[in-house]
Amino acid sequence: MSQYLAYTGLLSTATLCVFVGSYGAMHTPMKTRELRKAAGIDPNRDEEEGQSQSLSSQNAYIFPILGSAVLFSLYLAFKYFDKEKINMLLSFYFAVAGAFAIPIVIEHLLKVARGGKATNVDALLLRIRIPYPSKKKDLAPPITDASKPPMPRKNELTVDLLGFLIMGAYLYTRFWPLTNLVAISFAIQGIMLITLDSFKTGFILLAGLFFYDIFWVFGSSRLVGGGPSVMVSVATNFDGPIKILCPKNLLEIYKAWSWSGTLPKLAFALLGLGDIVIPGIFVALALRFDQMHASNKNPSLNFTRFFLDFPKPYFQACLGAYFGGLVTTMAVMHIFGAAQPALLYLSPACALSVVAVALQRGELSELWNWVDHTIEPSPTDKSKAA
User: Fold this and answer.
1) Which of 9, 161, 189, 285 is within CB 3.0–4.6 Å of 246 for a Cys-Cys bond?
2) One GO MF term, please (predicted)?
């Protein structure tokens, strides 16, 4: 029973990360930007520079190679060097990254939830503003509208203490819910940050990582002379927020504590962030494809990146396929009692779901040739609007 609760926890957490991250990865449609330009409005006024990094087909081809190099390097490091020292260094890196990632994710998702309306999150994020000396005076007038959050001045440094407090608590306690909180922030930020430029790129990426996952889970044992696979070895040795953890013996622990007062050690079921972020960026692409269709059909200045009320056949099918692929992964893992390459099931599930919808709607050619131009705001458009 406890194992099923753990699987349910992993399923719900992973699917929620993909769902939330996909909405966070939306951009204002090109049709809306054209209407803004015609009206003399900055077409990219609600875009955030540097929020997303576009992944092209050239990047997708080398992604599995780079991933393999990093994975095998970590395996060798854990094998030949002090595991505790390596984990200490990696923990420091993730602590710094997490301290900045958590506030960014919270602030952006609150903005999405409020339909793009300004939200003062200074109190929530425990934000402090530190002025530093500057030779030039900041001539920008202060914001007096109480409905808008205060904006940082050019000579002002903002620090969100909430992220540092959470990461400090994580480093001190290593409490698994805190590990999950940080990992969830990384997963959502990853889906928001890495954006596919087309379905062609998405298919290439999913295909490459399909074989990557199979090899490093099933085929790498022979490469390293037997024993656990490289993927399993790194996942179990790496003590960091790169995986979602759910205890699979909670009921047994409760019974032991109730009957004898002893507390057995927690045993965890886990899911790596790669099995969330990689399919997640593909699901997010499906949502932007739905957004493009809806904005072209009903163009409006109000159809911004924060407008969510439109038909989503591709997104719903792809998200459902992701959930089904995870269920299949965990079912096979439970039946055979061995680690499974999740992308073996997730990659074809996500890819085939959008192809099936495109075939049913007669849009396969459009899907194959579509390129998402909403990812990077155009500097020339900004200058023209100004």
Assistant:
1) 9
2) aspartic endopeptidase activity, intramembrane cleaving
Is 213 labeled as catalytic in the residue annotation?
yes
Minimal CA–CA distance to 54: which of 215, 195, 210, 200? 195
Query: What's the rounded Cα separation, in Å, for the pair 28 and 8?
Result: 34
301-336 b/e with 16+ CB inside 10 Å = b? eebbbbbeebebbbbbbbbebbbebbebbbeeeeee
315 within 8 A of 287, measured Cβ to Cβ: yes
End-to-end CA distance of the chain, in Å? 61
Lowest mean pLDDT among 150-164, 222-236, 284-298, 332-346: 150-164
Specify the higher pLDDT residue, 144 or 168: 168
Point out the catalytic residue in the list 197, 275, 290, 372: 275
156-160/127-131 β-pairing: antiparallel
Residue with tokens 């609600």: 46
Listed in sequence order, the residues at least 6 apart from 253 whose beta carbon sits closer than 8 Å to its beta carbon are 247, 263, 264, 266
- More confident of the two residues 1 and 224: 224
Overall residue count recorded for the chain in this entry = 386
How far apart (Å, rounded) are the C-alpha atoms in residues 340 and 334?
A: 10
* 161 pLDDT more than 70: yes
User: Is 80 exceeded by the pLDDT of residue 140?
Assistant: no
Q: Is the per-residue pLDDT at 278 higher than 80?
A: yes
Token couple for 291 = 């957004």
pLDDT score of 248: 86
Contacts for 68 with CB less than 8 Å, ≥ 6 apart: 212, 216
Say how far apart CA 373 and CA 291 lie, in whole Å: 13
- Catalytic-role residue among 160, 197, 213, 372: 213
